[in-house]
Write a structure and sequence with these properties.
This protein is of the alpha/beta class. It has helices spanning about 15-20, 35, 50-60, 75-85, 120-130, 145-150, 155, 170-175, 200-205, 220-235, and strands spanning about 20-25, 30, 45, 65-70, 90, 95-100, 105-110, 135-140, 160-165, 185-190, 215. The protein is built from ten helices and eleven strands.
Length: about 240
């Protein structure tokens, strides 16, 4: 009499890591972010080596995804361009981009207080364009010269969402917020003298804005503002 061999218990079928995410050892690259959240995985490059950033980017590219890397330094930017010759590296905004998402229906105005705030403003503008939005740039229109802001007001009012970028005391969102009827996202920057406390004063000023409906993201977070604005424009 032969003995029946015990059968192995059936394992519950789950998605393989190659389908849901790709495990590179140092990073688990999310391949389903777009299906869950509407926008694909983005690489935050600060603290990563150039090779790590490029390896993550190559994984996304192999899976048919466009690539956006934020906080990219010069060394990583050069490595990125070497790996993706058709990509663009924006040193001022610290972004590396390969491909874009389909064109959307939204227009976003980026209102920047001063030239010193441009790196953060351009991060917001380029990310918003990458996400498929039409972007209208209104730069160097801080409250120290209100006539500069007013010269752009008609175009700003045509936008679906407004992003205001400012340092110092962070007054620009309060002024713009009192002139428009559109959703507004404020970005405090770390630009300012000592009492600015590397953007903390600006952040507190924007959080206590007297204009209603001002949404505030973290200090220097142009990417976060562009992401939030895109979520709004996708509702149109």
């Amino acid at each position: 009499m032969t003995r029946k061999q015990p059968t192995k218990p059936k394992r519950k079928k789950t998605k393989s890591s190659d389908e849901a995410f790709s495990d590179l050892g140092f990073a688990k690259v999310d391949l389903e972010r777009e299906q869950r959240c509407g926008l694909p995985e983005v690489i935050f490059s600060e603290g990563k080596t150039p090779k790590q950033v490029v390896d993550i980017a190559k994984t996304l590219h192999r899976n048919g995804q466009p690539i956006l890397a934020t906080r990219v330094d010069k060394k990583t930017g050069k490595a990125f361009i070497k790996a993706f010759p058709r990509a663009t590296f924006h040193e001022h905004a610290r972004l590396a981009i390969h491909g874009t998402l389909p064109k959307g229906r939204g227009t976003i105005s980026i209102c920047c207080a001063g030239t010193s705030d441009l790196p953060v403003a351009e991060e917001a503008a380029l990310c918003a364009e990458y996400f498929g939005n039409t972007v209208h740039r209104c730069y160097d229109i801080g409250v120290a010269g209100l006539h500069r802001l007013l010269s752009h007001l008609s175009e700003i009012k045509k936008s679906h969402v407004i992003i205001t970028v400012a340092g110092m005391e962070g007054a620009l969102p309060s002024v713009v917020g009192g002139l428009v009827d559109k959703p507004m996202i404020a970005v405090p920057t770390s630009i300012g003298y000592g009492a600015n406390m590397q953007g903390l004063t600006t952040l507190c000023g924007m959080l206590t804005s007297c204009s209603s409906g001002v949404t505030v993201v973290n200090i220097d977070n142009g990417f976060g503002a562009a992401y939030a604005a895109t979520q709004i424009t996708r509702l149109l």
